[in-house]
Design a protein that fits this description.
- Chain A: This is Phosphonate ABC transporter, permease protein PhnE.
- The complex is a heterodimer.
- By secondary structure, chain A is mainly α.
- Chain A has a domain at 87-289: Orthogonal Bundle (MetI-like fold).
- Chain A is built from 11 helices and 2 strands.
- The N and C termini of chain A lie far apart (60 Å).
- By secondary structure, chain B is of the alpha/beta class.
- Chain B has 2 domains: 1-83 and 169-271, P-loop containing nucleotide triphosphate hydrolases (Rossmann fold, 3-Layer(aba) Sandwich), CATH 3.40.50; 91-168, no CATH class.
- Helix content of chain B is 36%, strand content 24%.
- Chain B has 7 helices and 10 strands.
- The chains are: A mainly alpha, B alpha/beta.
- Chain A binds chain B through residues 2, 8-9, 11, 191, 193-194, 196-204, 206-207, 210-212, 215-216, 218, and chain B through 58-60, 80, 82, 84-86, 88, 90-94, 96-97, 101, 105-111, 113, 116-119, 159, 162-163, 166, 268, 271.
- Bound molecules: adenosine-5'-triphosphate (ATP) and magnesium ion (MG).
- Magnesium ion is lined by residues 50-51, 174 of chain B.
Chain lengths: 291, 271
């Protein structure tokens, strides 16, 4: 019998935690990472000196600066603070621009639903077992996704001119690709049991999609849809800065005309807008999850 | 008990069925028949190929060889047969859908997409037929409830109703009662028996309870290593015959255990 009250005699060597080859690999990786980052810093002029000068510029931008010109005149350039809180000139139009941003995000999301659903269904192995078709679906979505929303927006602005509409189209196209992928992944993870049961009953792939897969994944799809709405409202702010309407467009115009205080008011409104949309979408997603 | 049906021609006939997953042979020339009005039980140790054989019949697996005929029609490998339905241990209803909609789904094979793209498109005749099927399993009063709200035994009966709505003549059941309590098991087995006796279905059920198999089936088939090792009238199957089915597995288990205890004895000695 072993005496359990005493520590057992040491019998086996403890295997080393680190092997020499492992240490060499770790050192090589570390050196590689340092070199890559140093090169990136050189290429981007990132240095403590730049950072310090940048700070001064930022300070002037935030709180204003008195500029003395060679002719002896001194002109005060307003900074971002104090904020521009004029109601009818700034805040009320700002609220309208924010609403427009929401409408762009909403339409961009909603208009993409039918096509995203089509791509999701043909790109999921659960709903489509014909390999060439789902490969095509995935390939098309990858290509569409590779182009950022901003680039779509620039193209459509070139085609139809400034305004909210090119923003909606840009968001919708990009969202087809992103939401289609998220949705098809949700469908891939669905329980195969009911799908098989309906296949035994003679259901076609489209019928199993409608009667086994979609009912099972509907809450996930809704959750992802709300998440995309949230993200698309953010994106629509950015699209505005390249000319596709909404609050982003006016942030850009105010910066261009050196009205930093008005711009900062709009930025604060964006912060509130994003937080409100985020809370709203999180709340709705919780609701959907419990259905 | 249904013995008079035995003379009937085989509704389901399986011959020389072979299936391998990679190197592993799972079905090795399996052959058996099930007649209309007959309940046949399949017994066998875990991994003996019971589920795989049923899945080959309904086209969920593609057999490597052999023939499957249903009412004289030869099945195409890997394709579903309209007249063969299957119920599963895990039931596989859509829990979020109503009981009635789940039963209607059994009719999908004979509905075009225009009449089945959504539950709203199901024709009235199909819904009426589904209600009749639900009535057959005694659950017509639960039609509008969500399937997920029903008990396991009730859900399994809904799955049987879905099979009926498919207008199946052959009903396969893979461990239909393994997840159910004794009372619910009894109810489901009675239902299967009555579908054979009163509606003339050919029923083949994989069971892990030899007692249920003896009580509810006309014949018992024993499977081991993907082959049929016995095919006898239920009354003629002795405890010894049944036990022998599971013995190889038991022996393997004992062998593994004794090897393990020998090993630990060695370790103790060493210490
Ligand atoms: N899709 C698959 N891929 C690889 N191997 C499989 C697959 N399906 C089944 N098998 C293997 O085939 C063998 C037989 O499986 P099968 O499910 O038919 O056994 P069973 O008799 O139904 O057993 P159980 O009583 O556990 O349900 C098992 O060894 C299993 O691991
Ligand atoms: Mg099995």
């Amino acid at each position: 019998m072993t005496d359990l009250t005493k520590a057992p005699e040491p019998r086996l060597d403890i295997p080393p935690r680190f092997r020499p080859s492992g240490v060499a690999t770790a050192v090589a990786i570390t050196i590689g990472l340092v070199v890559v980052h140093w090169y990136a810093a050189v290429q981007t002029n990132t240095s403590p000196k730049e950072l310090l000068e940048g700070w001064r510029g930022l300070w002037n931008f935030l709180f204003g600066v008195d500029r003395t010109y060679p002719n002896g005149k001194t002109i005060h350039q307003d900074g971002a603070f104090p904020l521009d809180l004029r109601w009818s000139e700034t805040i009320r139009p700002g609220l309208e621009y924010c609403l427009l941003t929401i409408w762009i995000g909403l339409l961009g999301t909603t208009l993409s639903i039918p096509v995203a659903l089509f791509f999701a269904v043909i790109s999921s192995r659960t709903t489509n077992r014909f390999a060439p078709l789902w490969l095509t679906g995935r390939a098309v979505m990858s290509v569409l996704r590779a182009i950022p929303e901003t680039v779509y927006a620039l193209m459509f602005i070139a085609a139809v001119g400034f305004g909210a509409f090119p923003g909606v189209i840009a968001l919708a196209i990009h969202n087809v690709a992103v939401m289609g992928k998220l949705w098809s992944e949700a469908m891939d993870e669905v329980d195969q049991g009911p799908v098989e049961a309906l296949r035994v009953a003679g259901a076609s792939p489209a019928q199993s999609a409608a009667h086994a897969v979609l009912p099972a994944v509907m809450p996930s799809l809704l959750g992802l849809l709300l998440y995309r709405f949230d993200t698309n409202v953010r994106s629509s702010v950015i699209l505005g800065t390249v000319g596709a309407g909404g609050i982003g467009f006016f942030i850009k115009t105010e910066v261009d005309s050196f009205h930093f205080d008005t711009m900062m008011t709009y930025v604060c409104m964006v912060i509130v807008l994003i937080i409100v949309i985020d809370l709203f979408s999180a709340w709705l997603r919780r609701k959907v999850g419990t259905v | 008990m249904g013995a008079d049906h035995l003379s009937g021609a085989a509704m389901l006939r399986i011959d020389g069925l072979r299936k391998a997953f990679g190197e592993k042979t799972v079905l090795d020339g399996l052959a058996f028949e099930v007649a209309s009005g007959e309940v046949v039980s399949l017994l066998g140790a875990n991994g003996s190929g019971k589920s795989t054989s049923l899945r080959c019949v309904v086209g969920l697996e593609r057999p490597d060889g052999g023939t499957i005929t249903v009412d004289g029609v030869t099945a195409k490998p890997g394709e579903a047969m309209p007249t063969v339905a299957m119920v599963f241990q895990k039931i596989h209803l859509v829990p979020r859908r109503s009981v009635l909609d789940n039963v209607c789904a059994g009719a999908l094979g004979r509905l075009g997409l225009s009449r089945s793209w959504s539950v709203l498109a199901f024709p009235r005749e199909v819904q009426a037929e589904a209600m009749a099927c639900l009535d057959r399993v005694g659950l017509a009063d639960r039609a509008r409830e969500k399937a997920g709200r029903l008990s396991g035994g009730q859900q399994q009966r809904v799955a049987v109703a879905r099979a009926l709505c498919q207008r199946a003549t052959v009903l396969l059941a893979d461990e239909p009662v393994s997840a159910l309590d004794p009372a619910a098991s009894e109810q489901v087995m009675n239902l299967l028996r009555s579908l054979a006796d009163d509606d003339g279905l050919a029923v083949a059920a994989v069971l892990h309870q030899p007692n249920l198999a003896r009580r509810f089936s006309d014949r018992i088939l024993g499977l081991a290593g993907g082959r049929l090792v016995f095919d006898s009238r239920s009354a003629e199957v002795t405890d010894e015959t049944v036990a022998s089915l599971y013995r190889p597995a038991l022996e393997a288990l004992e062998a593994a255990e004794s090897a393990e205890s020998a090993e630990s004895a060695e370790m103790r000695e060493y210490a």
